[in-house]
Amino acid sequence: MGGLLQLVTVGVQDKYIHGNPQITFFKSVYRRHTNFAIESIQQYIAGKIDTGDGHIGNVTLSKGNGDLVNKIFVQVDQVDTGVNGDEVIEEVELIIGGTLIDKHTKEWMQVWRELTTPSSKSDGIKYMCNSFENNLSTRADSTNQACLMIPLMFWFCRYPGVSLPILSLQYDDILLKFKWGNNSNINKDSSSTGHNCTVWVDYIFLDREERIRFAQIEHEYLIEQLQYQDTSNKGQQTIFEMKFNHPIKELIWTENNTGANAITNQKMNITLNEIDRHALQYKEYFTLKQPFDHHTSIPGYNIKEVDRSKLLMNPILIMGGTDKCKASSGSLSGDSFQIKSTLSDDSSYTGHLRILVSSGKAVEDIKIGDLLSITYPISGTGADEAITIYSTVKAIRTKPQSGTTAGEYTLNIESGSGDITTNKPPNNSINGNGSISILARTQDPTSKCSNLKKNIYVYSFSLNPEEHQPSGTMNFSRINKAKIKITEAKQIDTIYAVNYNVIRIKGGTTSLMYSN
């Protein structure tokens, strides 16, 4: 009866835990909800329905189909050569009663998915939008994928409690203006073929009493908007000025992470009216800690190292061709390699294959943990007969090993079960065709649910910026000078700000309470 002991050993401290209890874990409590139904209904597109550079498609949401508007998605048929859903929508504007309310870009939709999609759904939405980079993995002929579905990210699409009440907008049209993407980016084979798009809206149908109530009263909705500044054409700078308005709950910016523009060990901070908002921090504070503290996920491309190998989109050929695999009795020449089954001067690597490589550049390209595909001539056959093995690099000697010719470098790889070296040893007496390629590696950052290849930086003024419920803002309308500062001149591509605003629906029309 040890359980009873827990009940009777009660002290004065326990009054803060279960004194005067207010809930029980053993009696289910629920609340009844109003009756409703949801249906996805296809919309009519005026203008261009097919993708292409400069093509515009306008969708005026039908008001006769339901009472509220919630989720919206764009559907595109899949083809055998592969369609990249991240490139289908270049940008989309939400216009109500002739007033631009919000505007999202293709990069922003990828950024938001990276931050807000849980790991349990990341592969699913990446497949749904066909954002995988392996051209062979998501083609229609290999997976039977019939279509792609790209969800929009406007505030009413993400939060059912602020679904857009079209039954109260008798006199204002709700327009979605799509700028379709460039076909050479959309098609994975870079062709110019266009693709027809359809737009689907989830309409919510209310029960009679609630519908009458929605139609008769005025509405004020707290909404979210996106502001952004393209700074990619400003080049390298130490100061990036931000010109934003309204109460902002977080700042997000992207950086291309390439060449001299890449931010490495420089520090950054944000200043407001020339006052430091926080101390100088390395990039990991913004790319790792801030997303960890305030978002569902850390963007995949921000994570530069993983424990398991990831298949590369295209194998990296280190060397290959005629007579690239040299006889072990001879010497290496040009860009070539030799395979030997033992390491006579290092017993700790017994059981591993030894590969001598003539090129120091090849050693620079290969990393420990890489999965290699190695093709070489096998013993007892002609020079044209070969075997291909797949194995992992265990050690790399970046200097010539003792007893080898200058300019020869050593790779040590797993030999597997030993059958390779016992039953299919390399032909040591002839030069033959051979190749070494990298198939997978452990350090190859990829985005989790998009194909965005940029670092995503976050600074949140809010405790929970993904939630519609406000939990902290900074009113940029009261800030004269807002800046991102870097200790060394670097380049930032785009700076985003997520702000709150209010729309009022009265007399069948909509007005935005605070303008820019």
Automatic annotation (TrEMBL):
Signal peptide: none annotated. Transmembrane segments: none annotated. GO terms for molecular function: structural molecule activity. Residues 210-301, 454-509 form the Major capsid protein C-terminal domain. InterPro entries: Capsid_N, MCP_C, MCP_C_sf, VP_dsDNA_II. Residues 24-207 form the Major capsid protein N-terminal domain. This is Major capsid protein N-terminal domain-containing protein. It comes from viral metagenome.
